[in-house]
Inverse folding.
């Protein structure tokens, strides 16, 4: 597995965020999103978000404008960095403060999984902080390295190279993420970067039959691009709602034998900056992970309850997830603005 070829993801992403369109101000980046002029954002928040996260009250009418202000503030700050500040500024991904992830995002050579010994001091890094990951299986330096490589790959493709999310990008990111790591019952060579060929379930809830996974993934990607173009044309593009919707769709397809949760969050954390220069770190504490899993489970239960209805009859099943993501976008953006200014 080759090391990251991009010279510095952190620097490239900062430059990307400097030039992005400013949501809510009716302006457009030099590289208009999806090739379409982006008008001023207008979003019906009550149709996209819940007013509760679990048992806690949540007000998207207050939080959403704050997120837009933070995004525009960050863009202005990054545009005004001096050359010295540009060199020393932290990466645009809050979790890149980990030594290993920082090295990978800066394009430095890092040993691959087969060369790293578990006796190394870095083996004890707090894995759960990496991009908000919540998987208890990520306990080693090698797994963190592959997770960071996969994150770098998918963010570079979507944001720096301006590619649309595709099945090929998803499969390659999964291939990088799971390289040299066997699943519980399957060698990595058989499932890495390959849609599952077995049935899987979460408790008593089965996911779609493996025979229709390729069809559902093609539909997910097609619908994503259609939704984005339609939203931009109408001036209703909401990066958080769209990213939440399609990570919800992805996790309920559950296309892989292993790594679906991590891939879900990698997709979320690449779509947010592509669609709106937003960032979110989810699952940094045990409490956060419990809430995240409960909300994901609630969304899955709604899929079971309303899955047979026509699309125009279904409720919005990712509204609570959208509220959770929006809350973490605000927190992550606040932390990043503070860090860049410090």
């Amino acid at each position: 597995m080759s090391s990251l070829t991009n010279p510095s993801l952190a620097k490239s992403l900062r430059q990307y965020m400097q030039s992005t369109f400013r949501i809510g101000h009716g302006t457009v980046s030099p590289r208009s999103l999806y090739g379409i002029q982006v008008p001023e954002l207008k979003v019906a928040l009550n149709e996209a978000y819940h007013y509760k996260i679990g048992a806690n009250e949540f007000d998207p009418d207050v939080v959403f404008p704050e997120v837009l202000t933070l995004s525009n503030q960050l863009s202005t700050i990054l545009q005004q960095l001096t050359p010295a500040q540009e060199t020393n500024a932290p990466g645009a991904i809050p979790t890149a403060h980990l030594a290993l992830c920082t090295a990978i995002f800066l394009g430095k050579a890092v040993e691959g999984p087969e060369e790293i010994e578990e006796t190394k001091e870095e083996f004890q890094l707090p894995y759960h902080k990496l991009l908000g990951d919540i998987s208890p299986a990520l306990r080693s330096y090698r797994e963190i390295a592959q997770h960071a490589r996969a994150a770098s790959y998918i963010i570079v493709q979507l944001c720096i190279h301006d590619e649309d999310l595709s099945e090929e990008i998803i499969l390659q990111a999964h291939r990088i993420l799971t390289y040299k790591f066997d699943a519980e019952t399957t060698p990595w060579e058989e499932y890495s970067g390959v849609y599952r060929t077995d049935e899987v379930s979460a408790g008593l809830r089965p996911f779609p039959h493996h025979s229709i996974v390729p069809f559902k993934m093609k539909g997910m990607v097609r619908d994503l691009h259609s939704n984005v173009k339609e939203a931009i044309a109408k001036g209703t593009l909401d990066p958080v709602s769209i990213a939440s919707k399609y990570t919800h769709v992805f996790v309920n397809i559950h296309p892989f034998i292993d790594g679906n949760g991590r891939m879900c969050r990698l997709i979320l954390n690449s779509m947010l900056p592509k669609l709106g220069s937003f960032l979110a770190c989810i699952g940094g504490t045990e409490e956060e992970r419990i809430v995240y899993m409960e909300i994901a489970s609630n969304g899955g239960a709604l899929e079971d309850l309303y899955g047979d209805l026509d699309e125009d009859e279904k409720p919005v099943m990712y509204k609570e997830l959208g509220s959770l993501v929006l809350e973490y976008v605000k927190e992550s953006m606040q932390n990043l603005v503070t860090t860049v200014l410090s």
Remarks:
- Confidence is low (pLDDT under 50) at residues 1-7, 21-39, 90-106, 109-139.
